[in-house]
């Protein structure tokens, strides 16, 4: 797959690669950008071109390997993107999934579908716990670290957290999601709720793809960049 380039028209890129739509929204870029290129849009909104292009390419190509950033000014923009992704998961995706799942349970009305509700509730709990931990612990730490770096100060000695703690315990919430998909696709008996099940499966597949990209961005961009910042500040 050819990579997205700085000179590509952003609107054409979204039409060609719909996943790019979520990237644009999560960077806080409003729609209505005419025929401006990706580079022009990034410049207008003060977003580092390198970061914007990297996240766009990771969103459309699972084999795209990002380069290591040589500077740290991408971190505030990357954190904004990730926080906005979390808001989308918890404020839009989860409520929609809950509504679809309840409809599925009502129309199925048998024991096998009621059992899956326990797995579903566990999954929702995992997503919420995961995003809250990242927002309140991991991202807050990175923001404090970055402020200390900019101001030339040492990090508050009361902050014992390091990004390696997060990297070693980065929960894979996609595992539970795969359990749900396998049950819906392979193990539940045929029923009269084919359309409802189809809609639910499609929604879960979209969320799976979105979460997979999200995890790659954290693992391949965020964690290595913060590791390097910690080394620069002689913290590790």
Write out key terms for the chains shown.
single chain; 236 residues; mainly alpha; 2 domains; globular
Give the oligomeric state of the chains in this entry, treating copies of one chain as homo and distinct chains as hetero: single chain
Number of strands: 0
**What form results from the Cα inertia axes?**
globular
Total helical elements: 9
Q: How many domains, in number, for the residues? A: 2
Please state the structural category: mainly alpha
The fraction of residues assigned to DSSP E strands is under 5%
Mean pLDDT: 88
Low-confidence stretches: none
Rg, rounded, reads 20 Å
Molecular structure report:
With 236 residues, the protein is mainly α. It folds into two domains: 10-60, no CATH class; 75-232, no CATH class. 71% of the residues lie in helices and 0% in strands. The chain contains nine helices and no strands. The protein has helices at 10-16, 20-26, 38-44, 49-60, 75-108, 111-151, 163-168, 174-187, 194-232. The longest helix has 41 residues, at 111-151.
């Amino acid at each position: 797959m050819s990579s997205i380039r700085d000179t590509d028209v952003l609107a054409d890129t979204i039409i060609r690669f719909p996943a790019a739509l979520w990237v644009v929204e999560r960077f806080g870029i409003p729609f209505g950008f005419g025929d401006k290129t990706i580079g022009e849009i990034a410049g207008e909104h003060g977003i580092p071109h390198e970061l914007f292009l990297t996240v766009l390419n990771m969103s459309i190509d699972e084999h795209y390997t990002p380069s290591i950033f040589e500077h740290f000014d991408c971190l505030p923009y990357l954190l904004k993107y990730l926080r906005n992704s979390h808001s989308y998961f918890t404020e839009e995706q989860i409520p929609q999934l809950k509504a679809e799942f309840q409809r599925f349970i009502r129309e199925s009305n048998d024991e096998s579908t009621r059992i899956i509700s326990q797995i579903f509730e566990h999954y929702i709990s995992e997503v919420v716990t995961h995003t809250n931990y990242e927002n309140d612990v991991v991202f807050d730490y990175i923001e404090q670290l970055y402020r200390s770096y900019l101001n030339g100060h040492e990090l508050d000695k009361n902050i014992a957290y390091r990004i390696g703690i997060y990297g070693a315990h980065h929960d894979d919430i996609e595992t539970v999601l795969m359990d749900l998909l396998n049950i819906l696709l392979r193990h539940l008996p045929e029923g009269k709720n084919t359309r409802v099940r189809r809609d639910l499966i499609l929604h879960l597949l979209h969320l799976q793809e979105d979460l997979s990209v999200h995890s790659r961005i954290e693992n391949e961009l965020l964690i290595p960049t913060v590791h390097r910042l910690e080394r620069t500040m002689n913290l590790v």
